[in-house]
Amino acid sequence: MKTSHKIAGLTVMVLALACYVMGGGTGSAAKMNRSTPNVTHIGQGEFTNEVGLSQQPVVVDFYATWCGPCRVLSPMLEKLAPGYTNRIKFVKVNVDESPDIAQKYQIEGMPTLLFFNKGEVTDRILGLPDEMVLMTKLDSFAAGK
User: Fold this and answer.
1) 45: Cβ–Cβ under 8 A, 6 or more apart, which residues?
2) Rounded CA separation 38/60 (Å)
3) Domain 3-142 classified CATH 3.40.30.10?
4) Is 70 a catalytic site residue?
5) What is the pTM of this model?
6) What pLDDT score does 145 carry?
7) Domain coordinates of the chain in residue numbers?
8) Distance separating alpha carbons of residues 78 and 82, to the nearest angstrom
9) For labeling, which of 35, 38, 63, 65 is most exposed (least CB within 10 Å)?
């Protein structure tokens, strides 16, 4: 096995363990699975229309309700999304409810943010980003860079 594969596997295991251990967080499971005015919860049936066919750039938050870092990221996205109205669409996918989508996009740890432009993945963030780092990434994505 290549060293890079071992490191990737170890990273996934550490992230999964962190998700399990951190369990708590700021968002409840039921709340995380609801759409809000800023971030739309989608499943398998809506993914193509909401993401693949979107004329607007899309950020997809792949999460699990049991994941502590996901519970921290969810309100962060809620807070940041209004600043990108009409420039970036924000959606979230529960990997436990939509495992086929997670598998298709090789989601190996949570949270994972995928950045889509015209239906194609252009970037990704694995794990819980610092809010300022995420804002910088979103600014660049909104500007088409």
Assistant:
1) none
2) 12
3) yes
4) yes
5) 0.80
6) 76
7) 3-142
8) 8
9) 35
